[in-house]
Design goal:
The structure holds 2 protein chains of 2 kinds. Chain A contains 20 helices and 14 strands. Chain A is of the alpha/beta class. In chain A, strands 3, 4, 5, 6, 9, 10, 11, 12, 13 and 14 form a 10-stranded mixed β-sheet that branches. Chain A starts with a helix and ends with a helix. About 8% of the residues of chain A have low confidence. By secondary structure, chain B is mostly helical. Chain B contains 14 helices and 2 strands, in the order ααββαααααααααααα. The longest helix of chain B has 33 residues. Classes of the chains: A alpha/beta, B mainly alpha. At the A-B interface, helix 1, helix 3 and helix 19 of A face helix 2 and helix 13 of B.
Chain lengths: 461, 295
């Protein structure tokens, strides 16, 4: 009898232990504050799941009477040297320190895996309360599937908050009349250049047309500098330049998406020809360099020009004490020297349609866009605020002023190509074929034909 | 014992937990994946039954899948040949050592106990163009290739590099299994061969090797199935790039599912992968016949 009972007990324990491995962990981990203020993971995940185990950054644990919300973020809030990320961490700390009855728990992951992780959470029915998201196809999927909810009612309920945003900020997160995301900062893709290298190479004026740009690169090369730094390993870095080149040749992504223009059209071919011409001036290691490596080449003063979104200001200045004084900014050149469109984007926070704590989420969204956070966005991180906030430009990084000047004169904006095409897969197809063309694995015609074929098969039907 | 085996309730009692577990964590998901593979499903809405369209698209329209199939088969053959030969040689050498056997065994086996994802990241750093191996080669005036961004040839250099890293990680497992096999051989058989005048090489070739057939079947099956399912190293070293040239079936499945929300299509890839694993296991079991020499 005793042995029977023991065997039953053991069998039940075995089944229970094994089944815990099948459960889906929604536990994002807990952190307890250490004396130095840094969170220390106590690892409360007892499910045994390591797949969804993510680092958790937090300033305190939620007390029993606090409403806890989860926010998925694409960088490590504790370890990152990026000043924008540090600013988000400060905002989280500020939110959790306030006696507002709410607590935000941040799930962090690295940028490369971010979309896949969020998609996996959503597919598993564990949509976080808040998620940061680029505008474009991923957001489109979430909106179409009803994973995230419109925020109009919350904006309308607080007209002061709604009206604090600068004009056009909601454009890329508006579907019909519904606003699905709250932008937290705004960035534009520009050419950052090392003024000392330009001077040493005898370049007195920044180039405004493609011919002048290629001439400047040739002069820099002659002077012994690496003219341009770029990453092909992080494909979107290269395709961002491709997007600019195509835009300058008159390519219209909306027409491509609608099927009224074709990837094999002459202007697309010309755009990619420009890209190939520019790529001749990349650093030798561009094929294997990641985005961070490419940016580091610039702030370590190993390359003269970096074509990148203005979010890199925070990264550059966070890693180099000297680059701010030597860094100038100019717009990506147009074909004829006119002012062309600028690639811009906002980082947006979307709210789950199934969140049980919408008020807490909205309170956090308001804090991300309040005066303190938005002033710091410009003054600390060098990114463009999304609200009409007074910025003390003397406190902001110098590059912020240069980017602001460019934005003041711009004639139009476009989205990142990989975020403006019909789907995430279309964006990846574009990115990958641009890399293949530049590295010589495909001819321009072959690469564009591949994208055309993808569109015929997946978009234009 | 016989009494217990006649007790159907006892048999049921002992089988039930395992049967339940298998159904819940293995057969259930496989059947569900089989159903989903016949659907157009993005995991956010109801699955739409489309028959065999996903499978047809895989083999007729998806060039990346065909590349991933080629790469997975390459990994299987490369791992099979290299791991079996090197693992067996290492096992034979270490089994014959009098001193230091455990030290060498632990050193060779060490990569197996480390996270292959972490090792993948480590090698992606080592093989970066501006650090690690290429910097070392530069000291000797040699310009190293782009180890992880090469696309030339039917099997690009990057695939060979990942294969070699996988060999370094997993050869220890094959070696350990063969060492266990060698340790299990009755010493009297080897002594009889020595008495009959056979040297060490002849004894290994004609006595040890045939007796290792059951273990060979096991290790070959494990290597083949493991290679076909190859994911973590590729994902961490190249993410399937450049331009999907290093995708394997497992990584492509992951991208189709988790990046593009094409879960029906990803399930179809998983079913093809499952069929390939079963097929390979069947072929291995048919081709390697095992006889009980010792009894």
């Amino acid at each position: 009898m005793k042995s029977k009972a023991l065997s039953i007990l053991l069998s039940v324990s075995m089944v229970a232990a094994a089944l815990t491995g099948c459960s889906v962990s929604t536990d994002t981990g807990e952190t307890t504050p250490s004396t130095d203020g840094a969170g220390t993971e106590t690892g409360t995940d007892t499910t045994g799941s390591t797949e969804n185990k993510t680092e958790t950054t937090d300033t305190s644990t939620a007390s029993a009477d606090e409403e806890e919300i989860t926010w998925v973020f694409w960088d490590d809030l504790e370890a990152s040297t990026d000043q924008m990320t540090q600013l988000y961490a400060q905002t989280v700390e500020r939110f959790n320190a306030e006696d507002n009855g709410y607590h935000v728990n941040v799930i962090t992951t690295n940028l490369e895996e971010y979309d896949s992780k969020v998609n996996a959470l959503i597919a598993a029915g564990d949509t976080p309360d808040l998620l940061i998201c680029n505008p474009g196809p991923n957001a489109d999927v979430y909106v179409d599937a009803g994973v995230v909810q419109p925020l109009n009612q919350y904006l309308d309920a607080d007209p002061e908050w709604r009206d604090s945003f600068a004009g056009g900020m909601f454009d890329r997160v508006t579907y019909g009349s519904d606003i699905y995301g709250i932008p937290t900062n705004f960035a534009a893709a520009c050419c950052f250049y090392n003024t000392e290298m330009f001077e040493a190479a005898g370049i007195s004026e920044v180039p405004s047309d493609m011919e002048g740009f290629l001439d400047a690169c040739a002069k820099l090369k002659e002077a012994g500098y690496t003219p341009l730094t770029c990453s092909a390993s992080t494909a979107w870095c290269l395709s961002m330049i491709a997007g600019y080149c195509m835009n300058r040749e008159g390519v219209d992504t909306e027409a491509l998406n609608a099927g009224t223009a074709h990837w094999t059209d002459e202007n697309c071919v010309k755009g990619v020809e420009d890209l190939v011409a520019i790529s001749k001036f990349f650093q030798d290691t561009y094929l294997g360099d990641s985005n961070d490596d490419a940016t580091a080449h610039f702030y370590n003063e190993e390359a003269a020009i970096l074509i990148q979104g203005s979010w890199c200001i925070a990264q550059m200045n966070g890693n180099s004490a000297t680059i701010e004084d030597k860094c100038g900014v100019f717009s990506f050149p147009s074909v004829d020297g006119s002012i062309g469109d600028m690639i811009v984007k906002t980082d947006n926070v979307l709210m789950s349609a199934t969140t049980e704590h919408p008020e807490a989420c909205v309170a956090f969204l308001k804090m991300l866009t309040d005066e303190t956070a938005q002033k710091a966005t410009a003054e600390q991180a060098g990114k463009i605020p999304v609200t009409k906030v007074e910025v003390d430009t003397s406190k902001a990084p110098k590059q912020f002023g240069y980017v602001s000047d460019l934005l003041a004169n711009l004639t139009g904006t476009i989205g990142f190509y990989n975020e403006s095409l019909v789907s995430v897969e279309a964006g990846d197809t574009f990115d990958n074929n641009m890399v293949s063309i530049v590295m010589g694995d495909e001819t321009i015609e072959e690469g564009l034909q591949n994208i055309e074929d993808f569109y015929k098969e997946n978009a234009w039907q | 014992m016989n009494k217990a085996l006649r007790d159907k309730k006892a048999i049921l009692f002992f089988i039930l937990p395992a049967a339940l577990l298998f159904t819940l964590v293995l057969f259930g998901p496989i059947l569900y994946a089989g159903y989903i593979s016949l659907c157009d499903w993005n995991a956010l809405s109801k699955p739409k039954f489309i028959g065999l369209k996903n499978f047809k698209a895989l083999f007729t329209k998806d060039d990346v899948f065909l590349t991933s199939l080629k790469n997975s088969i390459f990994f299987m053959i490369f791992s099979l040949v290299t791991q079996q030969i090197i693992g067996l040689i290492l096992a034979a050498i270490l089994s014959g050592l009098r001193y230091g056997k455990n030290v060498y065994k632990n050193i060779i086996y060490l990569p197996c106990v480390l996270s292959s994802a972490a090792l993948g990241l480590l090698f992606s750093f080592i093989l970066k163009p501006n650090m690690g191996l290429n910097q070392l080669l530069a000291i000797f005036g040699i310009q190293g290739p782009n180890w992880l961004m090469s696309v030339n040839g039917y099997i690009p250099l990057t695939m060979w590099v990942i294969g070699v890293v996988a060999l370094w990680i997993y050869v220890g497992t094959t070696m350990m299994l063969y060492m266990a096999g060698i340790a299990g051989i009755d010493k009297s058989l080897l002594e009889a061969a020595y008495i009959d005048g056979a040297g060490k090489t002849k004894t290994f070739w004609h006595v040890t090797l045939p007796l290792l057939k059951p273990m060979a079947r096991t290790t070959i099956s494990l290597t083949c199935i493991g290679s076909l399912k190859f994911f973590d190293l590729v994902y961490n070293m190249t993410q399937g790039g450049p331009n999907n040239k290093t995708q394997t079936m497992a990584t492509w499945l992951y991208f189709e599912g988790f990046s593009y929300f094409k879960y029906g299509y990803a399930s179809a890839i998983s079913i093809v992968l499952l069929i390939m694993c079963l097929l390979v296991t069947f072929i291995i079991n048919r081709c390697i016949s095992v006889k009980d020499f010792e009894n």
